[in-house]
Amino acid sequence: MAPPPPPDPKFDLRGIGAEINCLHFYCKVQKPCPPLLFSGLSSGLIHVWNLNTRRTETILNGHDSNSVFWIHNLHNKDCLMSQGRDLQIHTWNLAEGRNEVTDSIAVDSVGFCKCSLLNNGSCLLAMPGKELSQVQVIDLASKKILGCMNPGADSKWGMVMCIKLWQPKSESSPLLIAGYEDGSVVLWNVLEQKVMSRIMCHKEPVMSLDFDCVNAKGVSGSSENILNVWTLDEQQNLKTLKTQEIVNPGIADVTIREDKKIVATAGWDTRIRIFGWKKMKPLAVLQYHSASVHCVAFSDHLIPEERLLAAGSKDHRISIWSIYSKT
């Protein structure tokens, strides 16, 4: 018996007029507050979408027409951070209809490495540093640098491409996982500023990664036609667990859903792929976009059945999918 055909999008968002580089949901709200989707564009704008009306509530313009490639809520739906190609990280106040930049952090890196935010009592931000392979972690309240991870001139890892900051329960220091231009994935101790483990995952630069700190397991993608799944053992050693082949090369983004059940990828081949996270079983290939998919994001609805997947593309569209799975 043939498998059922993949679903169509629940709806799409248009009239954007630019490539969509990044997406972020804020849906853990009580009625009457609407669930929100934030989209960062190549034009430098940020659209704030009301998912009930499927229209923009606000358009933010603070990066001088430079591409926005990372957005994240800081404390609540009214406090947003954005990172742009103008080498600025802005904090926005959106309360009561405002759209003002209340704080900015200058970035010394000219690469495409997105920031990573950790809120574990104090808000910590990992961001690319001045040197090619460098990552800095700062305390947002004090602006103090907690750690500066720099492998040194002789490492030849190349540019840092993607990062994920997290706090293990058994460690006093936050840990940072970073993907580099040489295809390696590296685990850093932030406070000690030292490498704990390093593995070669790809033959090409690591384009994206995500890490499941509950199961100590991560996934990374590159311009190749593979996803690499790796684990972190109790001795803090990274080990390759599985290499999952896909049909066409190029993974622009990969993200694990909050419940650790499924993972989604954004493909250069215009496709969105869904896998079961436990065994990386392919579940669906979603086809809607006419150009490369740049980013994917899962919603954080409080009710699991309401959770959505959003994908943003070079074709100036955002597709919204209902992917409720207990897999």
Automatic annotation (TrEMBL):
The keyword Transport does not apply. Keywords: Repeat, WD repeat. This is Guanine nucleotide-binding protein subunit beta-like protein 1. WD repeats lie at residues 199-240, 286-327. The keyword Repeat applies. SUPFAM superfamilies: WD40 repeat-like. InterPro entries: WD40/YVTN_repeat-like_dom_sf, WD40_repeat_dom_sf, WD40_rpt.
